[in-house]
Design brief:
By secondary structure, this protein is mainly α. Helix 2 packs across helix 3 and helix 5 crosses helix 6. The longest helix is centred in the N-terminal third of the chain and has 34 residues. The mean pLDDT is about 80.
């Protein structure tokens, strides 16, 4: 075997891997869109050749992370407006931490949700167990932000 043959073979592996990643990202985007418009996990599982539970375990992480990110966006926006500010989510998060509404740990959880959401938006899979762990924190964080925002 020549060095050129090995280099070409490795290049083929790289190209195949890139194609696989791009394909997986397209599949995830299609699954999330199907769920957004109301498709059942059973219908999705039938198409991709797995069980309902298998499809859900593979793709629910991204779906849940998107919902959590939207919920936190809303809560942070309402909190910042209640404090008389029009801020980005990052600025509102820092304000909530600096005023003791949220702990540093909760701030890390919020940042983790946004990072996971960015990964999912790029087509990277978010394991459902990671989403489940973040969801637990997000519920208490949302409640704290809600109770800290003045009623209108």
């Amino acid at each position: 075997m020549t060095t050129e043959m090995i280099t070409n073979a490795v290049e083929q592996v790289r190209l195949a891997h890139e194609g696989f990643l791009a394909s997986d990202a397209r599949r995830q985007a299609a699954v999330l869109e199907a769920r957004r418009v109301g498709a059942s996990w059973t219908a999705i599982a039938d198409v991709i050749g797995t069980t309902k539970q298998g499809a859900r375990q593979r793709y629910v992480g991204a779906e849940e992370i998107g919902k959590m990110a939207a919920m936190l966006d809303d809560r942070l926006k309402v909190y910042a407006q209640g404090q008389g500010h029009l801020l980005t989510y990052a600025e509102a998060l820092e304000l909530a931490i600096s005023r003791g509404v949220l702990s540093e740990h909760q701030g890390k959880s919020v940042r983790a949700v946004y990072e996971a959401h960015a990964e999912a938006s790029r087509g990277n899979l978010v394991p459902s167990k990671n989403a489940d762990l973040l969801a637990t924190d997000c519920i208490s964080i949302s409640a704290k932000l809600f109770s800290a925002a003045p009623s209108v």
